[in-house]
Design brief:
alpha/beta, binds iron/sulfur cluster, binds thiamine diphosphate, THDP-binding, binds magnesium ion, 252 residues, 7 strands, 37% helix
């Protein structure tokens, strides 16, 4: 009788030194794990400083044993600009939600990207303000019901969901690396890890600003269980936000 193969064990990175307190089925934990694996594989886990946004992204601070600064809501782009300019040899990462990076912080995120600041931004796009109970953000889907769009998002009056990586890739010529990944399937998780690593390598080589948006689940505010939230992410959210690499200046 054939026996099932045990899955290959993936060593937990050293900097993940305690449990994180995300809701079951939340994508944040997967993304943080991928970032931690990349940091360790690149030998950067003792050299990194995070600028953490306000939102469920803030919970990264409770789960990773690294240097970090918890920024005011939306201001990680400005804070990371300063941290990288003052400490150019450190790897500087902003870890933010869609509300933090693209709504209240869109000015700071845009300014850092267009000035080609030499740090890396990871934006977790779960199409809502997760931490505060599911309000509409700039990436909320057309027709999506949230606590501030109770009849569904009306794009005639609130605009269409913003595709920020596409703006950076097409308009900011100096930017080094831009991509969008997702945690909806194992294949997408593995591809997202490649994007994260390339973004960090672009910073290490001094190439310029790098940005990876990662589509993520928020089962709690989407009113779904964990498997249905992943299906929704794959089947409904992803067609609105195409996955892939939009810019890779080094071409690696
Ligand atoms: C200046 C300011 N305004 C509003 C808030 C309330 N607030 C906390 S988190 C948050 C939104 C977070 O959404 P997002 O960045 O998408 O992160 P998520 O929780 O979805 O991961 C808001 C509006 C705040 N903390 N500070
Ligand atoms: S509210 Fe949403 S984003 Fe926040 S931890 Fe729960 S599932 Fe994750
Ligand atoms: Mg969000």
């Amino acid at each position: 009788m054939a026996t099932a193969k045990a899955p290959k064990s993936r060593k937990v990175p050293r900097i993940i030194d305690r449990p994180m307190s995300f809701c079951p089925g939340c994508g944040h934990g997967i993304i943080i794990r991928l970032i931690a694996e990349c940091l360790e594989e690149l030998g950067q886990d003792e050299n990194v400083i995070f600028g953490i946004g306000v939102g469920c992204s803030s919970l990264l601070g409770g789960g990773l044993e690294t240097d970090r600064l918890h920024c005011s809501h939306g201001r990680a782009g400005a804070v990371c600009t300063a941290m990288k300019r003052v400490n150019p040899d450190n790897l500087v990462i902003s870890y933010q939600g869609d509300g933090d990076a693209y709504s209240i912080g869109i000015g700071e995120t845009t300014s850092a990207a267009y000035r080609n600041e030499r740090f890396t931004t990871f934006v977790v796009n779960n199409t809502n303000y997760g931490m505060t109970g599911g309000q509409m953000s700039n990436t909320t889907m057309p027709g999506q019901k949230t606590t501030t769009s109770v009849y569904g998002r009306d794009c005639d009056t609130t605009g269409l969901p913003i595709r920020f990586p596409e703006i950076v890739a097409s308009q900011f010529e100096n930017a080094a690396y831009v991509a969008r990944g997702s945690v909806s399937t194992p294949a997408n998780i593995n591809r997202t890890k490649i994007y994260i690593k390339k973004a960090l390598q672009a910073q290490i080589s001094g190439e310029g600003y790098s940005l990876v948006e990662i589509l993520s689940s928020c089962p709690t505010n989407w009113g779904m269980n964990a498997p249905d939230a992943m299906k929704h992410l794959e089947q409904v959210v992803t067609p609105q936000f195409p996955l892939g690499e939009f810019k890779n200046k080094e071409g690696k």
